Structures are given as C-alpha cells and as structure tokens.
Amino acid sequence: MKHDRGAENRGDGKLVAAVGVNALLTAMQVIGGVISGSLSLISDALHNLSDAASLAIAFFARKIGRKPADKHKTFGYKRAEVIAALINLTTLVIIGLYLIYEALWRFAEPKEIEGWTMVIVAGFALVVDIITAMLTYAMSKNSINIKAAFLHNVSDALASIGVIIAGTLILLYGWYWVDTLLTLIIAGYVLGQGFTMLPKIINLLMESAPEHLSIEEVIIAIEKTEGVKNVHHVHIWQLDEHQNALEAHVIPSGDDPAKNEQVKTALKTMLFEQFDVGHSTLELEHAIHANCKEL
Fold first, then answer.
1. What is the structure's pLDDT at 11?
2. Best label site of 104, 107, 129, 212, fewest CB within 10 Å?
3. What is the tens place of the pLDDT at every residue in 83-103?
4. What is the DSSP letter of 235?
5. Torsions phi, psi of 255, nearest 5?
6. Cβ 82 vs Cβ 166: under 8 Å
7. Helices (H), the chain
C-alpha cells in the first residue's frame, strides 16, 4: 500500500511539472506568434493551452477519484476522471473550430510573417512537448485522461515540427500561405482527436455495455453454466474505464439453496475470468415466479 501511495504521489508530481512547462510554453508561443504574425504559432499555443488545462483538470480528477465510496457515491468517485475527460475533449473541439474560423479569415486577409521567430519558438516548443510526453507516457497506459493528454502532446510535437517547416519555407521562398494551411491541418488533427475519443467518454457516462463485450455472448456463457436454466434482465455497463459491472436474473435448474449458491459463485468466477466483470449482482429466481422476457 505504501508503494502504491508513493507511485501516486510521483504521478501527481509529474502532472504538476507538465502543467507548469506547458503553461510557460503557451505564453512564449503567444508572444512569439504576435511578434512574428504567425497564426499557426498562435494556434499551436491554443492547442498547448488546452493540454495544460487538461493536465490540470486530470490532476484534480485523480485526487477526487481516490476518494472512497460513501453513502452518496456508493460506487466511489472514479468517474470524476471520465467527466474531466469529457470537459477536456469538448474544449479541444471548440478550439479546433475556432482555429478553422481564424484560418479562413487569414486567407481573406493575408498578413506578412516573420519566419525566424516562428522557427525559434517552435523549436523550443518541440523540446517542451517531448519532455511533457515523457512525463505522461507511463501514466497514459492506465488512464483515459492522461492518455488524451499524452496524445495531445504528441500532436503538439508534430505541430511544432510543421511550424518549423512552415517558417523555413517562408524564409526561403516567402510562402506565407503555408502558415494558414498549416493552421487548418492542426485544426483538423485536433478535431479528429476530439471526435475519435468523445464517443468512448459518452458511452461510459451513458452506462453503455463495454465495446469489447457482446451481451449475447455473455448470456450464452451464463446459460451454458451447469445448474442454470435461464437468464434474463441482463444489464452490463462500465463503472469507470477499468471496471465492468453486470446484473441479471438467473433461474437455476434445481431447488437446492446450497447448490444454487454454488451456481452463483461459479457464475461470478466465470464472468470475471472470461469477460472481466469484476462487479456482478445475480438474483436467483424460481421459474414459477420469474418473468423470462429478456431486456
């Protein structure tokens, strides 16, 4: 337990450090974008600001998510991280739409851009993005919040590379339109990330069945278990991104209470081992009183 608490504290420290460097980078990119006149640099700064905000929200959500279950939140507070992810992704989509709006205006009203400032600031941004990605990589494997933040940092690194290329083309050939085009590409990538991850978050909050589970396969597996005559009123959902839950009404084939309890235990073991359902509620019914219509 002591080891786990230490790992959690180190993870929190990495998040705080990541928020700090991203906030500093955002300020530098905005200043550099204003001085150089580069819209793509400012757009990358806005994207980076969303990363800093998402990391900050994820930090507080992790804190809340560790709270134990109580009489009001009987399943605990783990969904705080899911809510945080929804906030982060929604903000990301709004930023992406705003970048497209600004880029289209820039097409209508072109502006001269200072290429050297673009290249220098974007080069510094690339270093910071790589550092942030390294800070969050390990935690991203087990948290949808941190995974979203990690992917954002990877996309930021790619965007910084793009800004460096755009600045170089402006310096060499005076292709100012490349800056606006790059802004549209960054916006498209941001929107793509948002719309890709939003359905998973919404499914969690809507208590949908896990994507990798088939309710028909679960029903078949239950009814194949020795001692089970029928199962109905089966509901499967996710408590959070790591915990699956199930409730069902089961009609045992026999009337011996002791054997039926053994059947229930066997079902719970099977559900955990085959379908990773860690929280299952099984109501045993007598066939005479059961309504066998499946929901």
1. 66
2. 212
3. 888 887 887 788 778 778 877
4. E
5. -115, 5
6. no
7. 2-36, 39-65, 79-108, 115-140, 144-173, 177-205, 215-224, 257-275
Question: Model confidence over 172-218: pLDDT tens digits?
Answer: 888 778 877 877 887 888 788 788 888 888 888 888 888 888 899 99
Contacts (Cβ under 8 Å, ≥6 apart) of 284: 250, 251, 252, 260, 263, 264
Q: Which one is the CATH code of 215-284: 3.40.50.720, 3.30.70.1350, 3.30.300.20, 3.30.530.20? A: 3.30.70.1350
Alpha-carbon 191 to chain mean position: 14
Bridging pattern class, strands 277-284 and 244-252: parallel
Q: What is the pLDDT of residue 216?
A: 93
Tokens 């915990």 found at: 243
DSSP 8-state symbol, 68: P
Task: Evaluate whether 38 touches 122 at the Cβ level (below 8 Å).
Answer: no
